[in-house]
Specification:
This is Helix-turn-helix domain-containing protein. The chain has 173 residues and is mainly alpha-helical. Helix content is 46%, strand content 5%.
Length: 173
């Protein structure tokens, strides 16, 4: 989780996920970072298994990187499984991801008008048991995996899309 708490690392991961393999130079140019900084963060992401080098494309000092095979569903650890000294890292990651999601959410009205076929939304409300909510969540994840493709094997016309699901109890507000 600590590796993901750095904003440039998250931007690098996003860039590789959406646009595919790249070098530290090309990533640095696009993200406005120098090659040394980009290389350092790429090595950190590699160390923690988030990305991998593409040896067949790399030559000399030019190293090509791609996202490592990762699940389409990234979950936060349960709070009761996090050591107290690691809780600030989780809190910061939640804060940063919330800010990123709010930026996405702010784009929704414009995207909805511009490209309704791709900017879909729904709001829901239900009474559920804890077990029923857990089953609903797992069914959602199965649907996500069933209808998703990796960038490399996506069919023609496939586009990257942001997908978010969150649930909150409604009786605490």
């Amino acid at each position: 989780m600590k590796a993901l708490s750095h904003p440039l690392r998250r931007r690098i991961l996003h860039r590789l996920r959406v646009h595919g393999p790249a070098t530290s130079t090309t990533i640095g140019e696009v993200l406005g970072a120098n090659t040394g900084t980009t290389s350092y963060h790429l090595r950190q992401l590699e160390k923690h298994g988030f990305i991998e080098e593409i040896p067949e494309r790399s030559a000399g000092r030019e190293r090509w990187w791609r996202r490592a095979e990762t699940p389409r569903d990234v979950r936060m650890p349960r709070p009761d499984t996090v050591a107290p000294e690691d809780q600030p890292v989780i809190d910061e990651l939640l804060r940063v991801r919330h800010a990123e999601d709010m930026e996405l959410f702010s784009r929704l009205p414009e995207e909805y008008r511009r490209d309704h076929a791709w900017a879909l939304l729904s709001r829901g409300f239900a009474h559920m048991t804890e077990e029923g909510l857990a089953e609903f969540f797992e069914a959602y994840i199965r649907l996500l995996q069933e209808h998703s493709h990796d960038r490399e094997d996506a069919p023609p016309g496939a586009r990257p899309v942001h997908i978010r699901l969150f649930t909150l109890p409604a009786d605490t507000d």
